[in-house]
Each structure stands twice: as C-alpha cells, then as structure tokens.
Design goal:
alpha/beta; CNF1/YfiH-like putative cysteine hydrolases; 11 strands; three-stranded antiparallel β-sheet; globular; zinc
C-alpha cells in the first residue's frame, strides 16, 4: 500500500493507494463493502456520498463528510487524486485521466468542496509518467491550447509526451490547494526490488484493472 505523509497526518482519516499485489488498500478493506455503487466514465460529475452502498451512477469524483464510508477511484495510468480537510471532517477521491483534466474535473470538484477557502491537502498517487505517455500530435497540440496558462514545457516535457501529473498539480494549486504531495511513481515503468512492476498499467497492457485508491473517515476521528 502506498501512502501520503500529508494525508497520514490528518486526524481520523485513513487512506491508501493500491498496487498490483494489493488492489484494494489495506486501510480500506474492512469497510470495503460499504463503498458507493458507481461507474467511472472519464467525466466530470462529482457525487456526494451520504449513505452506505449509495448508488451514485456515472461519476469520477466522490466526496463525503460521513464516517465509515470509503470513497475511492479505480485507475490504471490516470491520476488518482485524494484530498482531505486538515481537520478530518471531509474527504474526496478523484479519477482524472486526460479527458477529465481536459474537461476540468479538478476545478469542478475543488469548487464543490470550497477548497479556495483553504483547509484542504491533496496527494497525487501513482500515475503514468510523461516519458511513458506518448499521445498523437493532434492531441498534443490540443493540450497546449487547452492548458495555455501553463508553460508549454510543463504540459509536454518532450514532443507528444503529456504530463498528467503536472497539469493536475497546476489545477490543484490554481484552485486553492497549497499542501500537495506526489507519491508512488509511474504506473507504467516503476518496478520493485524484485524487478517486478509495482502497478497495473493500461498503457503497458493491463486491461479491466481494479487498482483502487481511496480514503475513509473513521468514527473516532469524526466524533
């Protein structure tokens, strides 16, 4: 399980980013059956979760202020983004691939959370790195136009190689997140001490991945 030191310091919140050998982070397993019923679609809809096993339909961001409810996302190269209020009273999980970033899922969820008022921290988890993420020239040029408020070399460090992490960080900071951490490395090329790949990666050939990242407010921390 991969963890963020920023999120680990939040009282009453546990979290984790899954790996190829532990798809559901250990911190979430006990309450896993209580997670919302969802379908991720690379969109921008954010669902507020208030009850156990809540049907939320198609969504790619999930947030709650209720204890005991896991909010999580599935990724296999896209950005798994976890956020928490510093006082442990609210958490959010966001799935942000290039489509979600392009459509503005991060600014949208930050507005919904009121992050511009401060009080939130964020962790960007295991995500495909720019050297591993080559896109078409047409898409690369579209990214440069869409993210024109960023230096071009941050969007595309090398020709046709898109940096998901850099765009996610830029949008987070623009939306009021000051405390931010990158954890876990690249889903496509990071290997462990045994030379085995640590994560599942769609770009590397893994399909139908169920690699999860999420958080849960504990009853003790919320009381």
């Amino acid at each position: 399980m991969i963890v963020s030191s920023l999120l680990a310091a939040i009282p009453g919140v546990v979290h984790g980013f899954g790996t190829a050998t532990e798809l559901v982070p250990a911190a979430l397993q006990e309450a896993w059956d209580l997670r919302p019923l969802k379908k991720q679609v690379h969109g921008t809809h954010a669902a507020r979760v208030v009850t156990h096993r809540q049907p939320v339909g198609e969504a790619d961001a999930f947030h709650t202020s209720e204890p005991g409810i896991p909010v999580s996302v599935i990724t296999a190269d896209c950005v798994p983004l976890l956020l928490a209020r510093r006082d442990g009273t609210a958490v959010a999980a966001v799935h942000a691939g290039w489509r979600g970033l392009h459509a503005g899922i991060i600014p949208q969820i930050l507005t919904e959370l009121g992050a511009e008022q401060g009080g939130w921290v964020a962790a960007i988890g295991p995500t495909i790195c720019a050297p591993c993420y080559e896109v078409s020239e047409e898409l690369a040029q579209d990214f440069l136009r869409r993210f024109a408020d960023m230096p071009p070399e941050h969007v595309l460090p090398t020709p046709r190689h898109f940096d998901l992490r850099a765009v996610a960080e830029h949008q987070l900071r623009a939306g009021g997140i000051e405390a931010l951490e990158h954890v876990g490395g690249c889903t496509c090329c990071t290997r462990g001490a045994d030379s085995e790949f640590i994560y599942r990666s769609y770009r590397r050939g893994d399909r139908n991945s169920q690699q999860h990242a999420g958080l849960i407010i504990t009853s003790q921390g919320h009381s």
